[in-house]
Amino acid sequence: MMNSVRASESGLKLVDQARRQKRWNKTAVAWYTSAFTSRATLNRFWGRQSIRTDTFMAICSAVGLDWEKVVEPDQFEIDQFEIDQMELTALSTTALAGIGHLDWGGAPEPRSFYGRMQELNTLQEWILQDNCCLVALLGMGGIGKTTLAVKLAHLLQDKFEFVMWRSLRNAPPLEEVLADMIQFLSVQQETNLPSSVDGKILRLIQYLQGARCLLVLDNTESILESGSRTGGYREGYAGYGELLRTIGETSHNSCLVMTSREAPQDLTLLEGEALPVRCFPLKGLPETHGQEIFKEKGNFIGDDTQWMTLIERYAGNPLALKMVACAVRDFFDSNIAQFLDFLKEGSFIFDDI
User: Fold this and answer.
1) Do the Cβ atoms of 210 and 24 come closer than 8 Å?
2) What pLDDT, on a 0 to 100 scale, did the predictor assign at position 146?
3) Residue 185 belongs to what H/E stretch?
4) What is the pLDDT of residues 199-211, one digit of tens each?
5) Which pLDDT does position 109 carry in this prediction?
6) Which residues make beta-bridge pairs with 134?
7) Could you tell me which residues come within 8 angstroms of residue 331 by beta carbon, excluding any fewer than 6 positions away?
8) Under DSSP, is residue 257 helix (H, G, I), strand (E, B) or coil?
9) Helix/strand/coil for 232
10) Integer Cα distance of 51 and 213 in angstroms
11) Closest of 156, 171, 59 to residue 102, by C-alpha
12) How far apart are alpha carbons 163 and 105 in whole angstroms?
């Protein structure tokens, strides 16, 4: 068999149909990374130029085609042993690609998780069935936005070719975040990034269109004006609004999930129940799951009414309940009634959470 082969005209028509079904463009990042090759090689493939036979096989396999139906038929003599070996290589390449590209960027481990199954089901439906391109998890501090986002991303990771998590807790400049995303989605192949923010955003969109990507931005409230109820941006961070608008208004195959204590002002204009941009206000945990948090800290004494009073006082906030559980255990002998009696004398130290 020849070391290099090229596609036939009829074969390229089959490839074109197959890549359209996957919603890939002709040089999609997901395509050439799945085949462990380069955009330049994929361009040569489309130009009917000769490329390595094993790479040719991998390119065809990535779109679910038998390479023998694509190759120019008069280029080689069949050697079944060589065919078997090369097909095995191509299949191995595709299997490796199926692992996906993951960058958790310091995301917390999804360990303790209480309830939230209905929330998870709704969010998965929004992203996988309704093809939402931008989803915001909103709620007070400690309510569990980050925990839910981590769990959601892990559940969805095999549905996406790229998964990337970034925290905005330290309010990084937008250009830094964009460059980081583009480098990751290009598999470190992007060397000359556009100089302007708008140019970088458009470049990012090209990657979101070329592959199925899940991006998560945690702690988005860090780039918003402190104490503002309007969702305005801090000075120097208005570019994030342009990023959200572009992702929310442009057609692509990907999804951005963000967490925030309040909705950025641009989001309120884009979101809607029947639109691809949606907000999910996160509420506190019900009594049953609130008790699970206490059980992790020890054995507590209390009747049903006392449990309900305690959980409701802290609005089912998981972080507040964890802190209160430690206090009840350490200072009130794990007795909920004693703690509630103490609260009647005045507010407790965690009441402002």
Assistant:
1) yes
2) 95
3) helix 174-185
4) 999 999 999 998 8
5) 83
6) 256, 277
7) none
8) strand
9) coil
10) 28
11) 156
12) 10
Say which residue the tokens 């997901």 belong to: 30
Q: Tell me how far apart the alpha carbons of residues 257 and 332 are, in angstroms, rounded to a whole number.
A: 41
Return the CA Rg of the chain.
26
The whole-angstrom separation of Cα 243 and Cα 198 is 9
Assessment of whether the complete model's pTM goes beyond 0.85:
no
CA angle, 315 then 148 then 103, to 5°? 150
- 3-state SS class at 149: helix
In a 10 Å sphere around its CB, with 0-12 CB exposed, 13-18 middle and 19+ buried, how is residue 173 labelled? middle
**Pick from 29, 206, 176: nearest CA to 105:** 176
Question: Residue type at 176?
Answer: E
Confidence at 352, pLDDT banded by 50, 70, 90 = very low
233: which strand partners? 224
**Residue 95 pLDDT level (bands cut at 50, 70, 90):** very low
89 close to 53: Cβ distance less than 8 angstroms? no
Residues 6+ apart with CB under 8 A from 84: none
CA 82, CA 84: separation in Å to the nearest integer?
A: 5
Cα 315 from Cα 55, distance rounded (Å): 57
Structure tokens, 111:
């360990």
Q: What is the DSSP letter of 121?
A: H
Q: What is the pLDDT of residues 265-308, one digit of tens each?
A: 888 889 998 899 999 999 999 998 999 999 889 999 999 999 99
Residue range 121-136, pLDDT digits in tens = 999 999 999 999 999 9
In terms of residues, how long is the chain? 353
